[in-house]
Design a protein that fits this description.
The chain is an alpha/beta fold. It has a single domain, classed as Rossmann fold (3-Layer(aba) Sandwich). Helix content is 38%, strand content 13%.
């Protein structure tokens, strides 16, 4: 039996302000810091131990992980990878969700926000919000840096990392924690829970609450549960 802990970063400053964030590198809010601390306290109290951690290259996920490990009073190897980044929201990044809904209507808003195959409008290649000049991505090919993504696109970039890196690490007996984002986690959820596109569109991942998956020897999910404030 294998066990995996995944957590969506704590509330970010733009989560609090209801702004599309995507690949924009926004820090945690004070509430998000407290969420991460509580997650660490709960994990320590329940006796969880980890050999290594995986996270994205975005500060809100990195800080969440750092805070959790500090609360648990452990130091373990941390591996950072852009494939665990949040879904890229294209030209919507930096825009208020309420304003987008008012301008384009509920149906279009929900397609862009939750639709499995719907991509928001692309960023222009010379848009200052583009990640192409960010040194974090200097080793990526131009086509690997998105101008927009659907959830399906996010799944397509996350799953190779899941299959090639994370699964072998789990099968090697390593106890791991992943700190990532709502949509990179939803991409993993869709795969391991065998959800169809309509089902995953309905899934909301809460900030700062550890999710535990248990797998059999073939990495088939046998159990899933949340470690929330009621523990």
């Amino acid at each position: 039996m294998y066990k995996l802990v995944i957590i969506r970063h704590g509330q970010s400053l733009w989560n609090r302000e209801n702004i599309f964030t995507g690949w924009t590198d926004i820090d945690l809010s004070p509430e998000g810091i407290e969420e991460a601390k509580l997650a660490g306290i709960i994990l320590k109290k329940m006796g969880y131990e980890f050999d290594m951690a995986f996270t994205s290259v975005l500060i809100r996920a990195i800080r969440t992980l750092d805070i959790i490990l500090k609360e648990m009073e452990v130091t373990i190897p941390i591996y950072y990878n852009w494939r665990l980044n949040e879904r890229h929201y294209g030209a919507l990044q930096g825009m208020n969700k309420f304003d987008i809904k008012e301008k384009y209507g509920e149906e279009q808003f929900m397609q862009w926000r939750r639709g499995y195959e719907h991509r928001p409008p692309e960023l222009a290649k010379d848009d200052p919000r583009s990640s192409k000049n960010d040194p974090k991505y200097k080793d990526l090919k131009e086509e690997e840096i998105p101008l927009t993504e659907s959830l399906k696109d996010t799944e397509d970039r996350v799953l190779p990392f899941w299959n090639d890196i994370i699964v072998p690490t789990i099968k090697d007996g390593k106890r791991i924690i992943i700190s990532a984002h709502g949509n990179s986690i939803r991409a993993i959820m869709k795969f391991v829970e065998e959800l169809d596109p309509k089902e995953i569109e309905m899934v909301e991942v809460p900030t700062g609450i550890p999710i535990v998956y248990e797998f059999d020897e073939k990495m088939k999910m046998v159990k899933k549960y949340y470690l929330d404030k009621t523990v």
